[in-house]
Amino acid sequence: MHRLLLNRDIYIELxxxxxxxxxxxxxxxxxxxxxxxxxxxxxxxxxxxxxxAMVERGVAVRLIHAKEPGPRFRDDFDRFDALINNExxxxxxxxxxxxxxxxxxxxxxxxxxxxxxxxxLGSKHADKRNFEAGFLFDDVEQIVQLTNWIDDLYxxxxxxxxxxxxxxxxxxxxxxxx
Length: 178
What we know:
Helix content is 30%, strand content 25%. By secondary structure, the chain is an alpha+beta fold. The chain has a single domain, classed as Endonuclease, Chain A, CATH 3.30.870.10. Strand 3 and strand 4 form a beta hairpin. The termini are far apart.
């Protein structure tokens, strides 16, 4: 399967449809990160609540982002102990990340333009959201290639040759070696 998703379909098919089905792990890579909300049971809840519930049920979550999140994201984040005190939740910041990708259980992946924001992946009204596009796919070779690349990024393997180190407040490679 290799399917193009546009605009709100990304939210409906990926965020509401596929992400909650993760059983083992979910990796999210995004440039921008904001307090994103999703519909659940007639209410809107922080996407971080969804991730925390996944961690609590044993799903490993890896979040890689380029920017420091804003205060509303931080306030939401601090409400969920599973995101702070559980080894199943991993978060790394790399200012060179511009990729937007989601890998679910190494069985399904999404690569596209949408950041982890309400206007990108979130539940914003169709007339208020960004114009986004991306591909949802299950090709094993491509998923292996993508997960290996994300793993290299997460492990700091690009840090040794990075020529933007002066812009990195907390180099990944320094985090791993401590």
